[in-house]
Design brief:
This protein is α+β, with helices and mostly antiparallel strands. It contains eleven helices and six strands. The longest helix is centred in the middle third of the chain and has 27 residues. The radius of gyration is 23 Å and the shape is globular.
């Protein structure tokens, strides 16, 4: 005996300031036989445009961003299965699209406890508006982050470097959009320059000045430390010793350019790149969810976070304030 049932959730809609109207509907199919029960789900995203756009513009400006939002909320890569354009006259045309992720084989359906963010934690209008606002602040670091989600490089070293780039970019985007943080960075830079004024040769003084200018007043270690600090209880649950973590990750990043200073072995480096990505994800989550307590709870209870926290405790215990493990002050 076999049976099949189909379900559709009520469509929800968000309106953006640029005139875009984005609607989402989740569909589920439940198949059941004598010895199996299978549930498949997909999302239908409908996008209404205020004015004509080319297919490339639709893809880059809306479709890819919506796909990334679904992937982020599911805490797993999502695939674009079909792309259909419907004219004002109701004529539908299925078109090809650039696939950033291809689903291979049977992908398990994500259940509620595996989701990083759901619309019962934040309403759809706020979620979509916050997501597109975040893309306005930092589209490139977000694309770097999702490149690791959809198609991570083969070599761990490249994953590690890309994770560090994403972290630096996200931090920079958040600081640049925060007037207080931007002002604090400017004052920090000025304070450093004042402290060394007259104490260095002119060439050395200008060299330090150029370094601070290019860094925007922040080193990688400072950016990682602030991302960890902004993460609050969620970050502490993953990495109890944020200062040690930031120093260790920074040294390993520098060590890839200057061999000899690395202290993490291959497994630890793999865990390290995952930890950087996870702290970046936490900071993205906090930008989307108005209630920091809910965001922290969702992050801490996520299976991905729990598993990674266990790996850190087992293989890099110094990040948890235990035993001796690779660290440093780069």
């Amino acid at each position: 005996i076999r049976s099949e049932a189909r379900y559709k959730q009520e469509e929800i809609t968000a309106h953006l300031a640029n005139g875009f109207e984005i609607s989402l509907q989740t569909r589920m199919t439940r198949s059941m036989g004598a010895r199996y029960l299978k549930v498949d789900s997909d999302c239908v995203v409908s996008i209404h445009l205020p004015s004509p756009l080319s297919l490339d513009e639709i893809g880059s400006e809306v479709v890819t961003k919506c796909q990334n939002l679904i992937s982020f909320c599911c805490d797993a890569p999502s695939a674009l299965l079909k792309f259909t354009v419907v004219s004002d006259g109701g004529v539908a045309l299925e078109v090809g699209s650039q696939l950033v992720y291809v689903r291979r084989g049977n992908t398990p359906t994500r259940i509620d406890s595996q989701m990083l963010l759901r619309t019962d934690a934040v309403d759809f209008q706020t979620l979509v508006s916050s997501w597109f606002d975040l893309y306005e602040k930092g589209d490139r670091p977000l694309n770097t982050y999702f490149g690791l989600v959809y198609s991570p490089p083969t070599y761990t070293e490249l994953r590690f470097i890309s994770s560090a780039i994403a972290a630096e970019g996200i931090h920079s985007a958040l600081v640049q959009s925060d007037p207080d943080a931007k002002r604090a960075a400017k004052l920090r830079k000025q304070s450093i320059m004042d402290s060394i004024s007259g104490k260095l040769a002119e060439a050395d003084f200008r060299w330090v000045e150029s370094l601070l200018k290019n860094a925007g007043g922040f080193s990688l270690k400072m950016r990682l430390r602030e991302l960890w600090k902004w993460g609050g209880e969620g970050a502490i649950s993953l990495i109890p010793e944020g200062e040690t973590w930031a120093s260790s990750v920074t040294r390993e990043r520098n060590g890839l350019s200057h061999p000899g200073s690395q202290r993490l072995d291959a497994l630890q480096l793999y865990i390290a790149q995952l930890s950087v990505r996870r702290v970046v994800a936490l900071n993205i989550l906090l930008q989307l969810c108005p209630d920091a307590n809910i965001a922290s709870q969702r992050f801490r209870s996520s299976p991905e976070t729990v598993h990674l926290a266990n790996q850190i405790r087992e293989h890099i215990p110094l990040w948890c304030g235990e035993d001796s493990s690779p660290t440093g002050n780069s």
